[in-house]
Amino acid sequence: MQSTMFVCNITQMDHSYVNDAGVFTGMSVNLNGLITGEMDPEEQVVIDFSACKKQIKYLIDDTDIGIDHKLVLYNAHSKYVMSDDNTQIHTPKGTVNINGNITIIPDEGAHIGESLCKYLDREISKYLTEKHGTVITFKSEFDTNFKVPEEVSTWLGFAYTHGLKNSSSYGCQNIAHGHLSYLGFVVDMGELLDERKKEISDLLQSIADQYDNKVLLCETDMKKSQLSFDSTSYLLQYESMTRGAMEMNIIDLDSVVLFDTDTTVENIVEKIYNDNLDAFKALGITKLYVSEGLSKGAMKVVV
Q1: Total domain count for the chain?
Q2: Which residue among 123, 143, 163 closes a domain?
């Protein structure tokens, strides 16, 4: 007998993609799905829930065809050119070495979300069918709902791209992966709140705009370089903890936020705090939240 099971919160996919203007854009989505197949005659299930979540996550994390902590290129939507030797991709904003950083989505959809769904549906269905020896189909569903703490008074989403050379996480060492994140304030609800609201909103918007669709870089990893198709660029180059050398050229410094540290979320919240401390105090902002993706991040108390 055939049956369909649903699975929610299979895994969060944190990645960046190249959009139709060649901009590196961070994205985070929770993967949900419908799994259809013949029920196992003994267990009376299509697939054991815990087994299927692990198997799907294994594919999402795969070095060659996975999505998580990768730079994703959509043939139908991304503006990029592959180098003649298939070792780099060139965009209007920079160049990235392919070595394990990049997944190419060949499927055409009306938009990026539809293209990603088609790709995952095909690859996950194929993988589960091979794994279990019976035809199994997977239908992707996404959500991008932030899990914002109740005490946060106001927040805005933003997207960024980065790489973490000193991370012990295999995926985080990728030089161009990213996140859809939020910036949130906890606000003192005392006197003159109405008078402060517009200034608080303007400050939140200003900071979010500074980081939205930006590549966050450690300045010590950068040096000037020459590219054949552009007279001046900057080479981001680092030796990752376990994956060897990572390399990326940045052409447009307007799309960059420079740090003097690694760009962990703890350091992002620290930089935003230090850059805006006087304004936070003046407006009665008591805590600063910055997420790394939809449901985790770092918090700083304003003192």
Answers
A1: 2
A2: 143
Distances (CA, A) of 36 to 49, 222, 245: 13, 49, 42
**How far lies 187's CA from each of 181, 233, 241, 288, 299, in Å?**
20, 41, 39, 9, 14
Listed residues 89, 122, 143: the one ending a domain: 143
CATH of the domain at 224: 3.30.479.10
The alpha carbon of residue 299 and the mean position of all alpha carbons in its chain are separated, in whole angstroms, by 19
Residues 194 and 133 in one domain: no
Query: Residue 191's domain spans which residues?
Result: 154-301
Which strand (E) or helix (H) includes residue 70? none
Q: In angstroms, how far apart are the furthest CA atoms of the chain?
A: 67
Per-residue pLDDT of the chain (303 residues; tens, 9 = 90+): 899 999 999 999 999 999 999 999 999 999 999 999 998 888 888 998 888 999 999 999 998 999 999 999 999 999 999 999 989 999 998 899 887 789 999 989 999 999 999 999 999 999 999 999 999 999 999 999 999 999 999 999 999 999 999 999 999 999 999 999 999 999 998 877 888 999 999 999 999 999 999 999 998 888 765 444 444 678 888 999 999 989 898 887 788 999 999 999 999 999 999 999 999 999 999 999 999 999 999 999 999
The answer to whether the beta carbons of residues 157 and 179 sit under 8 Å apart is no
